[in-house]
Amino acid sequence: MRKFSIIVLVIFSLAIKGNAQEKNLISVGFYNLENFYDTLNDPNTDDDEFTPNGANAYTPEVFKKKIQNLSDVISQMGMDKSKDGMAFFGVAEIENASVLKALCNSPKLKSRNLKVVHFEGPDGRGVDCGFIYNPKLFKVLSSESLTVPVDTGDRPTRDVLHVVGILVTDTVHVFVNHWPSRRGGEAATREKRKTAAGVSKKVIDSLMAINPNTKVFDMGDLNDDPINKSLTEVLQAKGKMEDVKAGGMFNPWMSFYKKGLGSMAYNDAWSLFDQCIISYGLINQENKGLVYDHAEVFSRSFMVEKFGQYKGYPKRSYSGGNWNDGYSDHYPTIIFLKSK
Questions:
Q1: What is the CATH number of the domain that holds 292?
Q2: What's the distance, Cα to Cα, between the start and end of the chain in Å?
Q3: What is the pLDDT of residues 19-33, one digit of tens each?
Q4: What is the pLDDT of residue 154?
């Protein structure tokens, strides 16, 4: 545990950096908001524990503090390199559009006039993927919710959110994923995540058949690391830019993973489940518009648990069923882009 704690003090101050001091980069990313529910009991979903009378005593006061804490993080994401903060970011584990709108209207974020995209999905716990964007930097052209054909019995998995829009000057496709968990074991659930990966891959392949330089962000809580087959075989994401061919995908998080960096921790080991895979069009230096600059696992000291069982981990919202006054059990991940 001591070794783990020492490592965590330094690894999240590191990033694969390019022009770290510039303020004119564009930042996009992903953040699992960890059980971001409203306080109302929805009879159609299994959300009882996140209600005032539920196991977690999820009161309006706790909900308000959860919003405040998340806004503390989001208001700082990308700000050291992007003057306007995040242009857009995908989110997971959100109950509905209303919680995202409440977050966007919080005091630290309201001035940005952030907007949301969300579809109600089939997840048994009532959590979905969502999309938050700054209309100053991103214009939505279309959006859709893609079904993941995984047989999970009475607990269907989350849909994939597909958003098409204009990022500054570039038309981009964004896929926001939350693939099936490893509950029951990694090997036993592996095929489910490979199936989930195939949902976005099918659309991406059709886009690349038309234009191999299509600019795509395939992001989410993948419940797999960069080395797992869902990414290396299904998405065919390469860890080195020079290995990516026209129409292919680049995974900047492979180098992070090989250095021991992660976005979440379990049993004193880091995993890098929160990723954003980008297409050849975003690394092709001959393209006009936006291209990849560097990536970052976003963590600041206030986001790190200082005490107890989870010391050194991301400071989570709840611990042992008690409100922990935290943020999320995941760190956000950010992709920085520069304009050619």
A1: 3.60.10.10
A2: 45
A3: 445 689 999 999 999
A4: 61
